[in-house]
Structures
1.
Amino acid sequence: MSGQALKVLNILEKEYPDARVTLHFEDPLQLLIATILAAQCTDERVNLVTKDLFKKYHQTADFAGADLRTLEDEIRPTGFYHNKAKSIIGCCEMLVKKFHGQVPQSLEDLTSLPGVGRKTANIILGNAYGQQAIAVDTHVKRVTHRLAWAKSDDPDKIEFELMKVIPRERWTMACHQLVFHGRKVCRAQQPQCPTCPVVKFCPKIGVPLRK
């Protein structure tokens, strides 16, 4: 399986040379906030919201001390704004109290923060701190199911399945490539199998992700 995965990743690397996280950020805190907002929302919409948000809130303490109602209104376009606002404020309050206002660099510390699961933590580790990490979003889940690299429906379990398939030194970039492929070709509805560059490695051609 690892040999097949390597061939697929080599093709995707050539197909998507600019694969990267598409959330806009300048530091770990901004990426943390943007990733929380990105739940059930497109990166494009999040980027529109954070463009103004990051002009107002510069430091962890700014978010920790934010007025809940005001923050809800500011992030409303991203959806689920009640929960997201509570998570952002609670998360930043803990960062101030426990981590001196700094976003930690370990999975254990990150997942101890309110509203931060393994996916969000791995996005931070892989893209803000340059560590190798597997972040399983809806695209990674769908594509790796179709390629038969993963079987679980639980993103956390899929992460561990992919650790056995994808070489460690490629974890972070492989996720970007899988996301780009999922957005462009291996779509949830009407996957573009005839033009897929890795179709010969796919045992589930055209099969939609099971519910």
2.
Amino acid sequence: MQLHRHGEAVAYLRQRGLRSPELIEHMQIGYAPGGCLRGWLARLGYPIQALREAGLVSAVGYDTYVHRIVFPLEGNLYGRSLSPSTPPHRFLPGAKGGLYLWEQVRLCPEVILVEGLFDYAVLWQAGFRKVTCALGNRLNAHQFRQLCDGRARTVYVTFDADSNGSGQQAAHWLAGRLREEGLNACRVSLPDGHDPNSFFIQGDDAQQFQRLLEEARP
């Protein structure tokens, strides 16, 4: 409800390459302007202490998600800040959960694995529907078990091409671990300094990304 009431939120999504109403509905993307969630939930009957314990309200009673694009997750909530003066990422207390929307792709023989939700978004929008997201380049035990569930599958590890090499190193390590579990794991090489989101923002398209998948190596 709040997303389309705030032009700055819609402008931020467009800046990140997210334009499709179908995508916004699919990911249930919203916006937390701050200053209204506590009152709204209180009117629905939720006690303030429960909101504090959930991480939605601070100890002094303010909304914890302020000026953030929000994405519902499995048992958590991710918020990306629009303000450069605050930390960019926020989660509720607890584990980040499993792979993003895993149930929608777990039966697929090929899966594209990315780091971030905006990476997922641009790929899904470009027609790559067999994609999931780890919310970082380090999988937790639950996410690893989801990938290694006994099904034969190819995993295209599409992590960020970081200038310090961290994404590439994480992709190399993960691909090796997945192959040890009997999966076909391939590393997708993005241009230096890019992630899938910036790859599409800079003007590359689905055909060019498909070529990267075809060139992926163990």
